Amino acid sequence: MLPSDPILRQYQVEQFYYAEAELLDDRRYDEWFALLEDDIRYFMPMRFNRGRREMHLEFSDDRQSAYYDEDKESMAVRQRKLACGSNWAEDPPSRTRHLISNVRIADGAVPGELAVKSAFLVYRNRLERQTEIFAGERQDVLRVRDGGFRIARRTVLLDQATLLTSSLSIFF
Amino acid sequence: MSAKTPEATRDLVARVFDEDAGKIQGRAYTDPDIYALELETIFKRCWLFLAHETQIPGPGDFLSTYMGEDPVVVVRQKDGEVKAFLNQCRHRGMRLCRSDMGSKARNFTCVYHGWVYGLGGELVGVPLEEQAYGKVDKAEWGARPVPRIVRYKGLIFGNWDADAPDFLEYLGDAAFYLDVLLDRSAAGTQAIGGIHKWVIPCNWKFAAEQFASDMYHAPVAHLSVSMSVKPVVEEEQVDFGHEGRQFRSDRGHGTGFFVGAGRRQLLGSFVGPEVARYMSEEGKEQAVERLGFVRGEYMHAQHMTVFPNFSFLPTANTVRVWHPKGPNEIEVWAWTLVEADASDEVKEAYRVGGLRSFSAAGIFEQEDGENWVEIQRVLKGSSAQDTWFHIGMGQGRARTDDPQFPGTVGWVYSEEAARGFYAHWQKLLTHPTDPVIPQNEGTCTGETCHAAE
Description:
Chain A is of the alpha+beta class.
């Protein structure tokens, strides 16, 4: 059940995000993948430099390509890849820190769901000195499940047009 | 760092690659003078990929891209033609167009002082012209045009050299292999929207060479993919085959591929079961009709580079340019191509299959970046730059009488195409005034011009 008290609801959602970030940063990937609902869409559209009159086209749409556009099955491929022992892009693994803030909660489209926007800063450092900082916005649909939250949809709006990384092998 | 004279740089280029010995020296990938020479004598003389026709479908639609390090704007004209010009105002050199792309532009206005250019780059307006200048000779001061544009089966290429050889002669026998990507269907191809752009701190030649010549890395670098992707047919595991060929061009291009068994299985591991089904059924049938058995069905898992920096994987249909950004960095610009008459389901399968496998977050591409980055980091060392690398795989084994495949052809696991790539690279850098393709009595020779026939 969702609490009716908005302050309590805010607290619970933020605590969920902190716990989720801990799973990613501690590389407890199997536990993180378990937070994804079976109908998950994990989506990170591309972003373009366009003139102001074309700002409605700033992000790629559903018919265009994307940085990530994943369902449960393709996320399972990525989960197996992380665990397989020859995943050279994350072996040795990156060091990451996910900072989540600016959490704004609205009722979801159906009872039992929340529409949550948040801001993130993700720091990534790997190998000797490769360092990247990603900033952006998450737009989530969270579903109440087993006394906690699950992620039914995550749209990640990255604040970059050219990806400033040699490989995107982490999650947001 | 003191710059070498052009002569000293050419001498260095002549030394760093020894084809007969099958070795190349690390500084080929790091030397700033070699890089400057590459921009001048390769990227200003070779045909460079600009855009797919469907990326600029209508009048005034444009795409900003690069030729070497030179920014250019590629624009669909009102009459349907395509023009490209240097993205630089002729007044103070400001970047004219700062959007990645756009539609229905009427002109390009410089935001510095307001000089206005038409869709072909012609100068059409100068603020305060009469009062401040009297008159500006507009025919003289248009944006610098890319003098040669060619449209080939959906792709648009440009060349800074007005005297460059025709595109089909430039391709030579490589056209036979390029058409596996472009000519599978009478309906032609289209680009799925959105160009992936990401930065890899490595020399551009590592990427171009790998797509020309390197099937060898796949079973090792991409081992995690075969361990993670479920086989299309459950009882068959993904297996990198051993029957295949590699083609070496005498003009720098290269390609390699498997033949026969494993086609559906491998393609399924690359971009998913629906694409593999399509390429084993209706997509195969029409390709066999147009291209014949060898190119329509027998060849698979093909990788290819058109010299210098345009690469792609036919049937997996990822297409990309390795834009050089200094000797130690590239930007990858990658997108996915589909047959225009494929079903919506197949196009969607290509869309998600392409981005999940061949992009910065792609389960294949993640490892490619890792390798090239670490090679380049190691090459900061003086000893590392002096080190010779083995590039002699398959030396002396290629033949020119393969009944099925034109040109110089060796085994799929070979570096014949890499040696061809670097031999051409070396020739263009050391003989900057010679024609960029082999000549005999003024016509292209060596390889037959299949596509022109």
